[in-house]
Write a structure and sequence with these properties.
Blueprint: H1 18-32, H2 43-57, H3 62-69, H4 74-77, H5 87-99
Length: 123
């Protein structure tokens, strides 16, 4: 089996030439879609887009994401943790950060307006 060990073998079972595939398939599709040349993605861009989309929709299934991405180590998949939208985690992180501040951040948008000093335009 010539294809043994190749992630994407050619139709003949040999090593697939990525440059040829990129030019024949990916770039033709980009051109047909009318994308400007500066916006054409690479295969790595597509992998990153897949991982980002998958994890944003199913952010708690890291093992499955690892399998789908073909990563051999979960730490590689965990590099995508920065893209997962998790409001509960974000609020907890914000609270922890606020507690560590050496000064009072105040009440934010509900701050008493009498405590706000307006800026004066320089003449």
């Amino acid at each position: 089996m010539k294809a043994e060990g190749f992630l994407f073998p050619s139709e003949h079972g040999t090593h697939l030439d990525g440059t040829n595939l990129r030019n024949r398939v990916l770039y033709r599709a980009c051109e047909a879609a009318g994308l400007p040349r500066a916006e054409w993605p690479t295969f790595h861009d597509l992998r990153h887009a897949f991982a980002t989309t998958y994890l944003n929709k199913r952010g708690d299934n890291w093992k499955r994401a690892m399998e789908l991405m073909g990563h051999g180590d979960i730490r590689t998949t965990l590099l995508y943790t920065h893209v997962v939208h998790d409001p509960a985690r974000d609020a907890k992180d914000a609270d922890a950060l606020k507690e560590g501040m050496p000064f009072d951040l105040g009440g934010g948008i509900n701050e008493d307006p009498s405590n706000v000093v307006p800026f004066k335009k320089a003449s």
